[in-house]
Amino acid sequence: MIRVTLPQHLRTLAHVGYEVQIEVEGVVTQRSVLDAIEARYPMLRGTIRDHVTQERRPFLRFFACEEDLSHESPDAPLPEAVISGKEPLMIIGAIAGG
Predict the structure, then answer these.
(1) Can you give the CATH number for the domain in which 18 is found?
(2) Using CA atoms, how far apart are residues 55 and 73, in angstroms rounded to an integer?
C-alpha cells in the first residue's frame, strides 16, 4: 500500500483526509502513483498534472524521504521506504505571494 499526503485544496476536492492509501501494480513511480490516484479520485484529474502534457502543475511539489522529487523523471522508481509504505509520498502545494 502506497501512502500519499495531499495539500488541503486537493483533500477538500476529493473529500479525503490528510493521507490516502493506494495500490499500485508493477513498478512504483511518480507516474504510476498519480495514475492510481486519478483512477481512484477522478475529480483530481488535471489538478496535480496537466491533462495533455502529464507534467506536474507548477505550484505543486513532490517530496519523499526528505528529498525533493519534483524534477525527477516521472518514470523513475520511488524510494524503497515509499514502496514499502514506511514513508509517504508527499504532494505539497507551493506558497506564493509578495
Answers:
(1) 3.10.20.30
(2) 10
Domain count along the chain: 1
Q: Cβ-count burial of 62 within 10 angstroms (0-12 exposed, 13-18 middle, 19+ buried)?
A: buried
User: E strands along 1-98, which residues?
Assistant: 2-5, 19-22, 60-64, 67-68, 89-93
Give the pLDDT score at 97: 63
Please write the tens of the pLDDT for every residue from 6-20: 999 999 999 999 999
pTM of the entire predicted model = 0.91
Side chain identity at residue 15, one-letter code: H
Query: What CA–CA distance (Å, rounded) separates 3 from 1?
Result: 6
The residue range of the domain holding 39 is 2-93
The whole-chain average pLDDT of the chain stands at 94
